[in-house]
Amino acid sequence: MATTLTRAPHKTLPIIFLLLVFLVTLLLFSKRSIDPHLPIYTSTDPYNPLPDPQIPHPDSISTEKPPILEPKSTDLELLNNDSILKNETGFVESESVDQNPFVESNSDESESVKDDDLIVEKSSVLDDEWVKKSVDWGRGCNMYSGKWVRDDEYPIYKPGSCPFVDEAFDCQANGRADEDYMKWRWQPDQCELPRFNATDFLVRLRGKRLLLVGDSMNRNQFESLLCMLYESLPNKSKMYEINGNKITKGRGYFVFKFEDYNCTVEFVRSHFLVREGTRINGQGNSNPTLSMDVIDKSARRWKRADILVFNTGHWWVHGKTSRGKNYFKEGDYIYPKFDAVEAFRRALKTWGKWIDKNMNQNKLVFYRGYSSAHFRGGEWDSGGTCHGETDPIKTGRIIETYPPKMKIIEEVIQEMRFPVVLLNVTRSTNFRKDGHPSVYGKNVTGLKKVSTKKEDCSHWCLPGVPDAWNELIYATLAAAQTN
User: Fold this and answer.
1) What's the distance, Cα to Cα, between the start and end of the chain in Å?
2) Is the peptide bond before 155 cis (omega within 30 degrees of 0)?
3) What is the mean pLDDT of residues 161-173?
4) Does residue 56 have a cis peptide bond before it, meaning omega lies within 30 degrees of 0?
């Protein structure tokens, strides 16, 4: 027993020392697990801590400053500062755009959305009632394949109620007695179009500019849109043309302002989208020309808009254009004879290149396709008529007819980098032989016999077919929002 007691301290001390080391180690690692940011190795100098092995040493970091990227606002706002130069619309001029950058909006009310190659402004306002009526939007719905259905809730605005319809399209005021042509609604095969909501449309336009560019067919659509929006305004005095101009076919530029929404709806005339000019012939007379490779002079106005709707087509079948003699021009060369269809192709490519170069991704660009003319018994300038037509076509070759110009438009848009939205209204308008002014493009009230020598079988009565085109624009915005 005595021998055992004298040897015990020599064995106990190492065991105690090992236990102390174990406990200290356990304490350190438990503190590390409670605070994962606490380093295992600590420095006694709080101002010069030991370096974290995951962070590069300052000496190894390049001193060259990275480029500063400054966000650019895409919302156009009316400014109260009189020292800032404004253009005739009251909006500050946009800067020239020479490339196609991908820029995202920083607006709180809207954001840029790319869906199915559509660039749209996504509004924060959503009407639950019509969203519930929408079915399978986006890829599942071809809005341009469908039929016209009778709807007694139409027209959207009553004939005679809108002060912006000029005489050429005001068929009821000009003596047309039948009314059924105003009672048709376009119904796609695969989905229901949302009911047009003018207030919601204007909310989407807040602080922006919508511009229709083209010939009188786009003026037809422009007047339709003004009427559809005007109908919803509680205070109609807050919608007006900024220069007090009345809409007539003789004037080529209109700007309508909506004060409560700080936005404008505009129209600029451009028959061909490329530049019209003149030349002096050998006899000293001035003859018109068309430069297929130069964009139209009105393009300076195009850059200022946020949403654009383009069209051209009907002027390409008129006399001097269709004949193509000493008319079409490239560079300084005037072709003695040139095919009008090929000229149309080259002009559209010029337009497409301009769009690719000058439109950024915060813009929304539509191209409205060719709308059908219905000259029974001849063409527009050879005695054809459409007088007396009161019902849409239900069968026949014209329903499936597709103009060569539309195939060219599709090809050009497919080749473009910028995602243009094609409003392909050709097939839907093929049905509507009943919708033209015919002899009611001028007031003929009281005439005993209506002359059919000058009939308009190209444009459309208002209210009427162009209202559906604007519903399709609205539906395009709704489709992007509900996906």
Assistant:
1) 91
2) yes
3) 96
4) no
Does pLDDT of 292 surpass 70?
yes
* Domain ranges within the chain, ordered by starting residue: 110-482
- 57 among known catalytic residues: no
Candidates 110, 134, 216, 428; catalytic one: 216
Q: State yes or no: cis peptide before 463, omega within 30 of 0.
A: yes
Phi, psi of 103 (to 5 degrees): -115, 130
Which position among 110, 374, 459, 467 bears the catalytic label?
Answer: 459
Is 306 considered catalytic here?
no
pTM: 0.72
Q: Is 456 part of the annotated catalytic residue set?
A: yes
Q: What is the DSSP secondary structure assignment for residue 448, as one 8-state letter?
A: S
Let me know if 351 is exposed, middle or buried by CB neighbors in 10 A (0-12, 13-18, 19+).
buried
Count Cβ atoms within 10 A of the Cβ of residue 212 and give its class: 0-12 exposed, 13-18 middle, 19 or more buried: buried
Measured CA to CA, the distance from residue 267 to residue 166 in angstroms comes to 14
Site of tokens 């007031």: 443
pLDDT at 252 over 90: yes
Tokens read off for 235: 């205070």
H/E element, 14: helix 2-34
Question: Under a CB-based contact definition with an 8 Å cutoff, are residues 264 and 305 in contact?
Answer: no
**pLDDT higher than 60, residue 249:** yes
